[in-house]
Amino acid sequence: MRTVHRLSPIPILVLFLSAALAPAYAVTVEQIHSPRPAGWVVDLTATLSPEIQAQLNHLSDAVKAQTGAEMAVVVVDSTEGVPSREFATRLFNTWHIGQQRRHNGLLVFAALSDHKSEIVLGKGLNDEVRVQESQAVMQGEMVPRFRSGDPAGAVLHGAAACAQRLLGADVAIQEPVAATPAPLETPASPEAAVVPTPGEDRPLDTRRQLGALGPDGALPPTSFVSDVSSLLGNGLIFILFFLLFIVLAAFMRRSSWSSSSPRSFYDSSDSSPSSSTFSLFSSSDSSSSSAHDSGLSGSGSSSSSSSSDSGFGGGSSSGDGASGSW
User: Fold this and answer.
1) Could you tell me the strand order of the sheet in which 321-325 lies?
2) 47 in a domain, yes or no?
3) pLDDT in the model for residue 295
């Protein structure tokens, strides 16, 4: 007799909520593609406006033209548990920022959800004076703006200060112009602006002007339609979540039923199920092993090709610079 295991819907609901609440923007170093040769900036959080990204690219272009150094800017949401200093240094050396022999690269890095920022210096810039100056830029230009809720300004001013004070470039930035709010419209007539006090008896004409009554003195039908539309909208959302829950429960129940029947792995006419099962798992193990080996070789080749094709000059870093948190 075949036994069917019934799953409780509570674990399914917990898994669904965990997946919905999990961070969606955590990345690895390999997932961040080099911005070269189109630019110098990578923003995976949509924090930097197009105007600010254009200023950052202009800064890095000026640094490259005046000094030969290379400055990149990267903004991510989270480093997925990896220390931000280690993450930024690995990214620097994966892209090889800076010239190959001078190692004069610089990376401005920020992980916004982790509340961490880094300035990573190439090996040719890691003297004591520049390291101290990078710490001054971090604490004076970047961290205060991060704490005040201006991450875009922190990145822009931090990169500009690095270009001027660490790389010796003659650059300047333009402050973003804040949009001015539109003026409030004044009512067309004084009668439209009059709001009677609570409990005051309003004449029929006044109530009709305020939109409380229709032309015949009855309530307008639009209020009923809007109430029904709002109710249907809320009910539709609830129905969609309920249907999703039913589909997940049915899928898990079917998976449990399939796993409880070992004869689903082989033909019922086969007189030797154990040998079939063994051959099945042997073939899967061998295929997974070969896939794993090919994946390792593929990742190695892609890593080497990405480092050589990153578009930067071939520099490296030992991890010196400045760290900040807010």
Assistant:
1) 41-43, 70-76, 105-111, 116-121, 321-325
2) yes
3) 42
Q: Which residues pair with 74 in a beta bridge?
A: 42, 109
Domain at 123, CATH number = 3.10.310.50
Break the chain down into helix, strand, coil percent, rounded to 5: 55, 10, 35
DSSP codes of every residue in 32-64: S---TTT-SEEESSS-S-HHHHHHHHHHHHHHH
137 close to 166: Cβ distance less than 8 angstroms: yes
Low-confidence ranges of the chain (pLDDT < 50): 14-24, 207, 210, 212-213, 259-308
For the whole prediction, is pTM greater than 0.70? no
Task: Let me know if residue 2 belongs to a domain.
Answer: no
pLDDT tens per residue, range 47-82: 999 999 999 999 999 999 999 999 999 999 999 999
Maximal C-alpha separation, the chain: 95
Q: Do the domain assignments include residue 44?
A: yes
CA–CA dist 39, 296 (Å, integer): 31
CA dihedral 98, 127, 86, 49 (to 10 degrees): -60
For residue 191, is it within any domain?
Answer: no
Residue with token string 């033909």: 267
pLDDT of residue 256: 56
The contacts of residue 64 (CB under 8 Å, 6+ apart) are 70, 71
Cα–Cα distance for residue pair 207/310, rounded to 1 Å: 70
Q: Give the total residue count for the chain.
A: 326
